[in-house]
Design a protein that fits this description.
Strand content: 15-25%
Radius of gyration: 23 Å
Distance between the termini: 20 Å
Cofactor: FAD
CATH architecture of the largest domain: 3-Layer(bba) Sandwich
Family: Belongs to the FMO family.
GO molecular function, one term: indole-3-pyruvate monooxygenase activity
CATH topology of the largest domain: FAD/NAD(P)-binding domain
Bound molecules: flavin-adenine dinucleotide, NADPH dihydro-nicotinamide-adenine-dinucleotide phosphate, 3-(1H-indol-3-yl)-2-oxopropanoic acid
Number of domains: 2
Strand order of the largest sheet: 1-2-7-6-5-23
Oligomer: single chain
CATH superfamily of the largest domain: FAD/NAD(P)-binding domain
Protein name: indole-3-pyruvate monooxygenase
CATH class of the largest domain: Alpha Beta
Largest sheet: 6 strands, mixed
Enzyme class: oxidoreductase
Shape: globular
Amino acid sequence: MGTCREEETTLKCVWVHGPIIVGAGPSGLAASACLADKGVPSLLLEKSNCIASLWQYKTYDRLTLHLPKQFCELPLMGFPADFPKYPSKEQFVSYMESYASRYSIEPRFGQSVESAEFDPSCGFWRVRTQDMKYLSRWIIIATGENAEPVVPDMQGMDKFHGPVIHTSVYKSGAEFRNQNVLVVGCGNSGMEVCLDLCSHNASPHMVVRNTVHVLPREMFGYSTFGVAMALLKWFPLRLVDKFLLLVANFTFGNTERLGLRRPKTGPIELKNVTGKTPVLDVGALSQIKTGKIKVMEGVREITRRGAKFIDGQEKEFDSIIFATGYKSNVPSWLKSDFFTEQGMPKTPFPNGWKGDNGLYSVGFTRRGLLGTTSDAIKIAKDIADQHMAFKDAKITTYNAHIVLQKKS
Ligand SMILES: Cc1cc2nc3c(=O)[nH]c(=O)nc-3n(C[C@H](O)[C@H](O)[C@H](O)COP(=O)(O)OP(=O)(O)OC[C@H]3O[C@@H](n4cnc5c(N)ncnc54)[C@H](O)[C@@H]3O)c2cc1C
Ligand SMILES: NC(=O)C1=CN([C@@H]2O[C@H](COP(=O)(O)OP(=O)(O)OC[C@H]3O[C@@H](n4cnc5c(N)ncnc54)[C@H](OP(=O)(O)O)[C@@H]3O)[C@@H](O)[C@H]2O)C=CC1
Ligand SMILES: O=C(O)C(=O)Cc1c[nH]c2ccccc12
């Protein structure tokens, strides 16, 4: 890494020998480790003050991985053998800390990337944070599919008398003991928060406005995800989906009578096509059956003391929790037409990892940590090949400095 004195009066400018990686979550760490393994240094810029900030700050206490650990390992280093099949979030974070230390990954914390743009006149990416400028031939976007919470603008929300939060700040049902809580959304977060509220004697009402696939997390003692992956090696996707639904119906009965209508498209096909993750049930469904979690149709409006629903019911609530998911923040800072307006690569999996001019993305596959691993390995190989050629061309910090000075 070298420094340059571009715009001396404003921000300090750093020239980076290897790629700049934006985001030190699992994807950024995986990319950095795979590069290190090939002898390529990288600079990780992270806006938070720790690695894996999503897992450390924005998840609830009872969270465990809902895929078995072999599907959530980062490349090059597996989980410790004594970890359970579904590690807790604390175990997952401690694994990532060991991973970072194993590959000597030391992100620059407190660096929020506010803009990044390729400069064709010098062939470098210009990356700006709140107090620094960085330059590199390569940029790897690793800010995640879940960078910002999504909170819909519901009519009357400003009038509501009680707390309104998003699941990204929910920790435990202990704060909602004996309360009537409206939970908006029925993805994995909505279901698990409702379950947690039940175990703290709160009364959750979960809004299900649409169709949803709920699958048991395990089938015959094997993880549903593992069963699906194994079957997909031999059978077509639609047949595998049919099988999963057969077992789900056998396990739960018809979920439609509980207010949970299934989409026409099967669960894995839907995940692949739209990214919508099926719910892997860890107990919420039985609480819906006992009536402890009440399923409500869409909300018409929020009132001062509660909500009116589209079926005409009106109920009082003490708190509202939005389990309405997340979105990418890439469009707010990256200047490139590689990403859609929603901040996802335009080219679908498995080809969305590489753009033009040294742009890469890791962890935007809608395939969880398995997708992260697949991207990180390909990116590291691609950059390592160029890095060798680049090194051979003996382009030094000094030369780059001159290019920059000519430009400014
Ligand atoms: C509650 C929850 C549970 C999940 N469980 C699983 C699971 O069991 N299995 C699975 O495979 N997947 C799971 N996922 C999917 C999840 O997205 C991945 O596990 C994983 O966290 C994705 O890693 P990532 O590094 O791509 O993104 P993130 O973990 O979101 O990391 C992105 C990092 O980028 C930083 N950042 C963002 N913007 C900027 C910026 N402009 N400048 C600098 N830094 C920035 C963030 O602070 C963050 O640290 C889960 C997701 C959630 C929300
Ligand atoms: N244990 C684990 O490993 C866990 C994993 N996760 C993962 O984290 C990611 C994010 O999950 P999650 O936070 O549940 O988000 P999701 O995007 O998966 O789900 C959001 C939910 O909110 C609903 N919704 C959105 N807007 C509205 C609205 N205006 N009114 C009513 N409902 C609305 C959606 O319904 P609609 O379909 O109609 O849009 C959907 O049911 C997923 O990949 C998930 O698998 C999450 C929790 C636990
Ligand atoms: O937990 C998540 O959000 C994931 O994306 C993990 C995941 C990847 N592919 C899936 C298919 C079915 C259920 C979960 C996942």
